[in-house]
Amino acid sequence: MEYWQDKVVVVTGASAGLGKCLAEEAAAAGAKLVLAARGAEALQRTAASIRSAGREVLAVPTDVTDQGQVDHLFKSTIDRFGRIDALMNNAGRSMRRAAIETTAEDFQDLMELNLISVVRCTRAAVEHLLNTRGHLVNIGSLAGKAAGRWMGAYSATKFALSSYTQQLRLELGPQGLHVMLVCPGPIQRDTPRENSHNDLDSLPESAGKPGAGVKARAIDPRLLARRILSACRRRRGELIYPRRARIVFALSQISPRLADLLVKWTT
Fold first, then answer.
1. Taken in order 99, 200, 91, 259, is the CA torsion positive or negative?
2. Pairing of β 135-139 and β 178-184
3. Annotation says 164 is catalytic
4. DSSP 187
5. How far apart are CA 18 and CA 9, in angstroms?
6. Radius of gyration (Cα) for the chain, nearest Å?
7. CA 126, CA 133: separation in Å to the nearest integer?
8. What's the half-sphere exposure (Cβ side, CA atoms, 13 Å) at 140?
């Protein structure tokens, strides 16, 4: 994918999972990488593996919920590379809890990470992205298109991210910026899910499974990363994976009752 040769790509949440795969696949395609995540040790391991493959990489430990650290991330990027060609807003967290048991503080906390941090990073990078007619990629979720059960505040935060991404696409697309929303189903994980923000003891057993028990095969994050890079090259506005999920989204606009039945049937 020579398209990515020497392009500067910033990836948040880059120390594990999809973020790590996005960074490694972009590097393999020739890009220069800037990696951001809270965990410095894991971040440096990802950076070391990319350097060992002969690619240029900058690792900046960053809490994207902190404006000062976000400013430092993008200043460091420009100081090192002088440009930004793509921002992959991947940092985020899921949740497992009954909606009625999810407090206002829980919603506020998750909204800060899953939406407000994207706003921070986007605003810090947008001038540079417009200069390069680059790519802004926001990693959403199928849950940001059709809400599921037992996800606490997660679906609401991802619905908000979907809306924000569409606004950016409408406003900044005419100025040359490619804006894309990625809505994947459950993604394979190398490590167990963090349970500190979950309430699994009071939920059905299925709630602890990927996608809160959705009947779908977990997605290989490396395959998804490749699809994201390919969709950027074609400047697509949205990537929904698996594609058949679009049927549920379409029906949810036609008949909420039918959409609810479909969600219940698939979980």
1. negative
2. parallel
3. no
4. B
5. 15
6. 18
7. 10
8. 29
Residues in CB range of 6: below 8 A, 6 or more apart:
30, 31, 32
Q: What is the pLDDT along the chain (267 residues), one digit of tens a residue?
A: 589 999 999 999 999 999 999 999 999 999 999 999 999 999 999 999 999 999 999 999 999 999 999 999 999 999 999 999 999 999 999 999 999 999 999 999 999 999 999 999 999 999 999 999 999 999 999 999 888 888 999 999 999 999 999 999 999 999 999 999 999 999 997 765 555 466 666 766 655 655 554 556 789 999 999 999 999 999 999 999 988 777 767 767 777 776 677 666 666
- Indicate the DSSP class of residue 188: -
Residues 181-233: tens digit of each pLDDT: 999 999 997 765 555 466 666 766 655 655 554 556 789 999 999 999 999 99
For 2-265, the fitting CATH number among 3.20.20.150, 3.40.190.10, 2.60.120.10, 3.40.50.720 is 3.40.50.720
**Domain regions of the chain by residue span:** 2-265
Q: Residue 4: name the closest of 99, 137, 124 by CA.
A: 137
Q: Which of 3, 154, 164, 241 is catalytic?
A: 154
CA gap 47, 40 in Å, rounded: 10
Q: Quick one: which H or E segment has residue 50? A: helix 40-52
Are the CB atoms for 91 and 64 separated by under 8 Å? yes
Pairing of strands 135-139, 32-37: unpaired
Q: Look up residue 54 and give its amino acid.
A: G
* Residue the block writes with tokens 């379409």: 250
